[in-house]
Amino acid sequence: MGVQPTRDFASLLDDLVAAAEANAEATARPSIPFDYLSVVEELHSGRIQVSSDAVAAEYMDVASDADLEELFAAAEPAEEAVADTIEALPVEPEAISLELNLDGARAPAEFARIRRAFAFANHPDRLPPHMRERAIQRMQVANMLIDEARRRALKGAGR
Length: 159
Fold this sequence. Notes:
The structure is a single chain. The chain is an all-alpha fold. Among the domains are: 50-78, no CATH class; 89-157, no CATH class. 67% of the residues lie in helices and 0% in strands.
C-alpha cells in the first residue's frame, strides 16, 4: 500500500464539486424551449388540423346520429326505473328503525358498529347521483335514531 499525501478537506470538496459538474455536463439532456401559450393559440387558430377530413368522414359513417341516439337511450335509465330505485329507499323513521334493528336492548358500544354498517350501505357518495338527496335524508334520520337509542341505552345502564 502506498502512502497518500495528506490533503485538506476543502481541496477534497473542490475535487468532488468539479467531478459532479463534469458528470452533469456529460449527461445533460438538450432542452427545447416550449411556450405552452403559443401552442394553445395555434391550436385554437384552426391552422392545425389534428386529423384529415377523410378520417372524420369515416368516423361519422361508422357512428351515425341514429346509432348514437340508440346508444345514449340505452345508457340512460328509464324514468320508471329511477322512480322505483328512489322509492326503494324509505325515509320514514319507522322503516329505517326496522332496518337498523334498534328495538332490542344493546350495549352502547354496539351503536357505532350499527352506524358504520348503515353508512357503508347507504352513504350518498356510494349511490348514483339521482338517489343522493334521498340518501342524505336517510342518513340524517338513521343518525338521529341511533343517537336516541344510544342515549336510552346509556340512561338504562345508569351511566
